[in-house]
Automatic annotation (TrEMBL):
Keyword list, A-Z: Cell membrane, Lipoprotein, Membrane, Palmitate, Signal
Signal sequence annotation: 1-23
Region feature (Disordered): 27-48
Organism of derivation: Georgenia faecalis
Gene3D superfamilies in UniProt: Periplasmic binding protein-like II
Any one Pfam family match given in the protein's UniProt record, by short name: SBP_bac_1
Designated name of the protein: ABC transporter substrate-binding protein
Amino acid sequence: MHRRTIAQSAAALSALLLVSACAPSDDAPDPDAETVAEGTAGADGECTGEQSTLKVWSWRTEDADTYEQIFDVFEGENPCITVDFQAFLNTEYNQILSTGLTGTDGPDIAQVRSYGQLQPLIESGNLVALDDIVPEVREFDETILAGALGREDGQVYGVPFASQTLQMYYNVAVFEELGLEEPETWEDFVAANEAIAESGMTPMAVGALDAWMLPIVHDILSSAQYGGSEFEEAVLSGEAQFTDPQYVASIQTLKDMQPFMSPDVVGVSYTDSQVLFTSEQAAMFPGGSFELAFFQEQNPDLELGVFQVPPAPEAVLEEAVTPAYADGNWGMNANGTQTEAAETLIAWLATQDFGQMVADDLKQFSPVPGVEFSDPLMSEMWEMYQESPAPYLHLVNFRYGEPLGTDLMGQGAQELLLGDKDPAQVAADIQGGLSEWFTPGQ
């Protein structure tokens, strides 16, 4: 019944872009055809009307198998609708989605980014406003819903699907073997890294070849040092800049911790860093809650622990914090031709039933009210965030223009780790790049 694919090779993605730009595929909907009315289920659960097939796109290739099971549930409840789920490489997804939404071969429903990365799709008229279609979304936590709103009109253009927290994972068995405990001070953290290195194991698995990961690593190590939410408020109002001493010092901390990262760290990919950790060649992994299900699947015997990295010396904040962000949303294609079926699906994506499957099966923090987190490690991560929240600064606030804050921090961190620039130069590049489009106080 399902026709689901995972487009993973660069060649396949390039071909898809070319095809999407030039002509619809064989099974593309006829742009002149009328919208097919959604069928109904008979007493035996069979479809008694017209059958609809909805294309659903995602950048989460690692979640594809689980989404198959989740959409099986939807199809059981809606036998006249089949879901064709397709997942693409995350680094290529934005371009593929942009091309697909403007043509006749795009998705009916798609995962779309949050905050600033959502705005181009809204401004180009590619997404349907959902306020009247899924009014329940307005009941979501406002800090999460902020990532789904149009900046100009304040309307809802997506159903948020997950929040992500950032923290340090660690191998419990390694810590026990070396007599280590979760660090309570920066000195404890450095001592743990030193003990792990002396044992011959890599302390922290970091993949700096993929620049997008480095702003995450930086915030995990240094958000408390530069001030977390306090710095966020100050820089947005114009009272602080990224060239201020505390932010420059936080970049220096990233450089100071390089000896404890993967050897030749800028040549190590994100995927390689995951393998280093799950194969127990590295004792710690600075990453997001989105890693949890993958880690557990790849090595079920790996006992995981998590902790917040304590504040570095002379930090602005006295306590550790957990940075977090709204990961993305489900959006509805404004050019789709199967409106009724698409509205049925996107409304279902806002239900507690779907949200609970996201939490239980994908191990993601669903923002749907009433969802509970039964996995002990998830509960611990969520509790840490609730006690001491902070924003994943560049993603939440500085992706509303070009160059993106995450790109500036990622490229700057690569240059830092290569020894090409010092922390002050990286900070100056970030401030200069953001000043091209960001005006404080607006």
